[in-house]
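Issue 218. Parser rejects a valid record. Input:
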Amino acid sequence: MRCGLGLVAVAGLMLLSGCNRGAHPAQVGKVAPDFTVSDGTSTIHLASYRGRMVVLNFWASWCGPCIEETPGLLALHHDMPGLVILGVSVDTDASAYRRFLAEYHVDYATVLDPDKTAANLYHTDGWPETYIIDRQGIIRRKVVGDPDWSNPEIRAYLESFQP
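Output the parser choked on:
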């Protein structure tokens, strides 16, 4: 019996320790860390999007869930043109990054950040991770993994921030 309770306690602690990686990390409700990342072809400066709703997506070309998520992000980008989608790739292979963009016809703003400059500011180390940032630059939500960006609840949530 004591062993069973010990396992339950350990499992509970593991779940609690992972909470900050979930949809309600400590950063929710706080100003999104500003960054500028330039890869020689593209530059993203987060503060330049202040006043617009931003979906900030950290991803990698070798990440299975990122690959699965890409068509949904593209559809979201095309269906909600007032929404800014910013992709920050943590790839270390620039040619793999460029091939991915070409193969999946990625047409929203994206930048290669192999040093994880931006990801480190967000304490992001799993891919994909996405931050919903409101017009005032406040993080409203963190999404871990590959959500269904066509889900009516997600769309309604994002539309609730539109003017």
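Fixed in the parser; the record now loads. Residues 24-159 form a domain with the Glutaredoxin fold (CATH 3.40.30.10).
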